[in-house]
């Protein structure tokens, strides 16, 4: 899944004078201010709920919210405390009140602005405070056009380190709100296979079935029936019905479903509904390559082309004081890590997330080699990439682009680097560092020193870049994927295969020498991907090395592990599901698929466990009003990817058991991602009547800057997240949404609307096998 990041969305300084000129500040006697409170949790009685922060941690004690600023940055907006979820109406009067203090004389800015580009400001006051609490009170009239998307901020950056505290914050007036009504009929907006189950979900409070009809584009009714009353869908808080029109098996274009006089989005019934999407999903990786020009010849629209970003990407270790006050010593080492994929909407490249993403693409290829009846995905020349026509499978060409980057992140022999000692999560402001011989270890990431704003194409990125310290997790990610690489390329490119195997064995040795070097977020322009349990990574790496080398050392390791031959539990708590920090299932999938000295009984056991996991996913369909293989009390960061990754296990269960119900279950998961959900939202850009439009991305930043491109088609949004309200937009939803409804199609909603390589990789995987299988 994705990772908690804190990108700062900047505003244009030259708009301050424009906005203040249009803002009328008046005396209390001249204005009758409306009374409703527009902010939530104004006295911090509910902790930080509703508030967001960046640049420093926001803490609450005794009714005060404080920020201990150790690195204030060079701009006021480098440290922010704020709240969204309200609007300003033209002609209305507003009042602002709060109390502020600091541990020394300092300054800050209080403002209200549009919460996206062009960041128009409606109120701006630059203020000074000292050690005694000081009350502030302001009034203004909104004289500009009504704006339903505004935010209140304290901007605290560009100053000496200080502690600033706020209390009794209030913004009163009439909030301007635009209500968008969600259609009540929800279904897969691109269509269905002729032989697949076809289910639509209707939000309806009636306890009686409703009549539904399928109508073609000539107005003919092709099929009719009555809905099944499901009742409460706990994940969205709605009462829903289900309409099952699976009996319609003939091919059609532009069909609609009618219920109670309302009509669905148009859809089709065809064999090729995923034929284009699989290519666009894979194209995500070319579009997000680093270190190479993205040429118009290989992208869907000319505006998606761009110059190469970060060429060259030559970096060293972080050598400054981090946000917690720890001084990092740097290192006498320079790494050329040009290439690879940008992880998500920022410019970071991470071995830990690159590992699972690259493995997923290579695993799709391996399925075609060892599963009877599977066809080769993306044969040479089928995908629009520069390497097409080189005699190598295009999927492997794309995987190699990142594999070579991960190889470049391995530390040369004889190199010494400072790392955190053990798991120090309880005392991050007094980190203990130790210099080690890091030979063969792998740097965790390479990224910008600080978060950049929106938009920021990679070729214009001005930030200094560093490698993060090496980590055991990154080292094992390389060991696993390089071992997989070695066997795949053995008969394709013997030299590259040998390079991969050597790197894998060096990484395995280094990880065993340094088994407890954990990731630490030592500079702010990147996510931590911090994982303090790497037992699953050790198992995964050993499994891949065993399959490739057949050496007893690796078999003895995996046989002694509690992960040996296990699969996800397939239960409602998602125990053991595959994700970037839970990688033992990857090792067991490889053991189940790829020939090795593993005895037949063990192979049958791991396959049976995979089928059992898929059976658990299948049984969850009946629990869910939206008929998906995912029952959860809360929806986590990247919830959409969980459905896609479960599709990998559902496919293999169908392969191993011959039971097509598992592929049908995967179809239902895709139905959800493509529109059969409470928000009537296709979470994939470019697909469906209501597709993803504004993912969190610094180049595909059209919402923030009209001159920037809209997203390329085929990108999967992370989706609903009711557990990590860590961006300003998500913070505004907290307390007002549950489960499947905690989402917004906003570029600034990085905890809801992030896109990333480890979510698009399983999208490539499942759309490819669906296009191959087509539920024949």
TrEMBL record:
Any Pfam family matching the protein: CBM_4_9
Keyword Magnesium listed: no
InterPro entries xref list: 6-hairpin_glycosidase_sf, 6hp_glycosidase-like_sf, Cellulase_Ig-like, CenC_carb-bd, Galactose-bd-like_sf, Glyco_hydro_9, Glyco_hydro_9_Asp/Glu_AS, Glyco_hydro_9_His_AS
The Glycoside hydrolase family domain, residue ranges: 274-766
Domain Cellulase Ig-like: 183-264
Keyword line: Carbohydrate metabolism, Cellulose degradation, Glycosidase, Hydrolase, Polysaccharide degradation, Signal
Residue ranges constituting the CBM-cenC domain according to the UniProt record: 37-157
Keyword Hydrolase attached: yes
Active site annotation, chain numbering: 696, 745, 754
Protein family membership: Belongs to the glycosyl hydrolase 9 (cellulase E) family.
Entry protein name: Endoglucanase
Origin species: Agarivorans gilvus
Lineage: Bacteria, Pseudomonadati, Pseudomonadota, Gammaproteobacteria, Alteromonadales
């Amino acid at each position: 899944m994705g990772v908690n990041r804190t990108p700062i969305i900047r505003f244009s300084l030259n708009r301050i004078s424009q906005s203040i000129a249009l803002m009328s500040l008046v005396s209390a006697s001249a204005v009758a201010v409306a009374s409703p409170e527009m902010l939530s949790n104004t006295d911090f009685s509910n902790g930080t709920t509703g508030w967001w922060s960046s640049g420093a941690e926001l803490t609450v004690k005794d009714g005060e919210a404080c920020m201990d600023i150790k690195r204030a940055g060079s701009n006021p907006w480098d440290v922010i405390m704020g709240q969204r979820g309200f609007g300003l109406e033209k002609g209305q009067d507003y009042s602002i009140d709060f109390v502020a203090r600091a541990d020394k004389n300092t300054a800050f800015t209080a403002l209200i602005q549009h919460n996206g580009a062009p960041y128009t400001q409606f109120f701006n006051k630059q203020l000074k405070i000292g050690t005694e609490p000081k009350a502030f009170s302001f009034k203004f009239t909104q004289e500009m056009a009504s704006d339903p998307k505004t935010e209140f901020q304290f901007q605290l950056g560009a100053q000496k380190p200080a502690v600033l505290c706020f209390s009794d914050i209030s913004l009163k007036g009439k909030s301007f709100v635009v209500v968008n009504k969600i259609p009540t009929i929800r279904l897969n907006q691109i269509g269905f296979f002729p032989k697949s189950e076809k289910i639509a979900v209707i939000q309806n409070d009636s306890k009686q079935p409703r009549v539904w009809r399928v109508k073609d584009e000539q107005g003919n009714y092709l099929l009719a029936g009555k809905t099944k009353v499901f009742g409460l869908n706990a994940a969205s808080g709605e009462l829903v019905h289900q309409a099952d029109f699976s009996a319609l098996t003939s091919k059609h274009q532009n069909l609609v479903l009618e219920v109670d006089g309302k009509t669905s989005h148009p859809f089709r019934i065809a064999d090729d509904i995923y034929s284009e999407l699989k290519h666009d999903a894979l194209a995500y990786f070319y579009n997000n390559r680093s270190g190479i020009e993205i040429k118009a010849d290989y992208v869907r629209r000319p505006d998606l082309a761009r110059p190469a970003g970060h060429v060259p990407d030559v970096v060293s270790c972080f050598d400054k004081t981090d946000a917690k006050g720890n001084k990092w010593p740097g290192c006498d080492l320079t790494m050329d890590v040009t290439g690879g994929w940008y992880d998500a909407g920022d410019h970071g490249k991470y071995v830990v997330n690159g590992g699972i993403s690259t493995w997923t693409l290579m695993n799709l290829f391996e399925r075609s080699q060892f599963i009877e009846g599977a066809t080769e995905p993306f044969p040479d020349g089928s995908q629009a990439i520069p390497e097409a026509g080189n005699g190598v499978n295009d999927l492997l060409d794309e995987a190699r682009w990142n594999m070579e980057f991960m190889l470049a992140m391995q530390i040369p022999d004889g190199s010494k680097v400072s790392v955190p000692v053990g798991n120090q999560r309880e005392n991050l402001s007094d980190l203990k560092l130790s210099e080690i011989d890091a030979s063969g270890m792998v740097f965790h990431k390479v990224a910008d020193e600080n978060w950049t704003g929106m938009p920021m194409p990679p070729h214009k990125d001005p930030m200094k870049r560093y490698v993060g310290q090496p980590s055991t997790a990154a080292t094992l990610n390389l060991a696993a994927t390089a071992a997989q690489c070695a066997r795949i390329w053995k008969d394709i490119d013997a030299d590259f295969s040998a390079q991969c195997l050597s790197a894998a064995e060096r990484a395995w040795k280094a990880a065993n020498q340094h088994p407890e070097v954990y990731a630490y977020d030592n500079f702010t322009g990147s996510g931590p991907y911090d994982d303090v349990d790497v037992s699953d990574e050790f198992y995964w790496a050993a499994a891949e090395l065993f399959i490739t080398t057949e050496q007893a050392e690796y078999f003895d390791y995996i046989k002694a592990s509690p992960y040996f031959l296990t699969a996800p539990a397939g239960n409602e708590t998602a125990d053991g599901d595959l994700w970037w920090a839970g990688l033992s299932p990857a090792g067991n999938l490889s053991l189940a698929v790829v020939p090795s000295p593993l005895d037949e009984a063990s192979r049958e056991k791991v396959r049976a466990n995979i089928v059992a996991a898929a059976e658990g996913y299948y049984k969850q369909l009946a629990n869910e009003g939206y008929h998906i293989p995912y029952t959860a009390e809360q929806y986590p960061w990247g919830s959409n990817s969980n459905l896609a990754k479960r599709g990998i296990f559902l496919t293999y269960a169908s392969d191993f058991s011959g039971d097509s119900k598992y592929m049908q279950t995967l179809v239902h998961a895709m139905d959800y991602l493509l529109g059969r959900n409470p928000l009537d939202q296709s979470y994939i850009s470019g697909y469906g009547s209501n597709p993803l439009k504004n993912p969190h991305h610094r180049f595909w930043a059209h919402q923030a800057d009209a001159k920037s491109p809209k997203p390329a088609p085929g990108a999967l949004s992370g989706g609903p997240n009711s557990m990590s309200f860590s961006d300003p937009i998500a913070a505004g939803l907290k307390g007002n949404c549950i489960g499947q409804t905690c989402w917004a199609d906003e570029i600034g909603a990085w905890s809801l609307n992030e896109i990333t390589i480890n979510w698009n990789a399983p999208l490539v995987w499942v759309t490819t096998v669906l296009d191959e299988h087509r539920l024949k």
